[in-house]
Write a structure and sequence with these properties.
0% strand; 88 residues; mainly alpha; DUF1681-domain-containing protein; flat
């Protein structure tokens, strides 16, 4: 088997094609003249609508007394029968 790992001091150079990386070429000359005006319209079709004016709010956190009342003991959950902490 060949060892393709980089040795100490070796580098890799990646050529991404200059400044055209990530840009699309127009299909023909007519599109290039209209692309600036229709380009923004194309992007708007992918944009999400703004959130509603009321906004999203989370419900208030529960009161500590409510949480303690709802919490079940280990015995009620079947983890401790009261003797040596074994399962019931």
């Amino acid at each position: 088997t060949k060892d393709y790992s980089l040795k100490e001091g070796e580098t890799i150079t990646v050529n991404l094609g200059g400044t055209k990386f990530g840009r699309r070429r127009p299909q023909n000359a007519e599109e290039s003249s209209t692309s600036s005006s229709s380009g923004s319209a194309d992007l708007q079709s992918f944009a999400l609508p703004p959130p509603p004016a009321g906004g999203f709010s989370l419900p208030p956190p529960p009161k500590t007394s409510d949480v303690k009342e709802k919490r079940k003991s280990l015995k009620n959950l079947g983890f401790d029968d009261g003797q040596f902490g074994e399962f019931a």
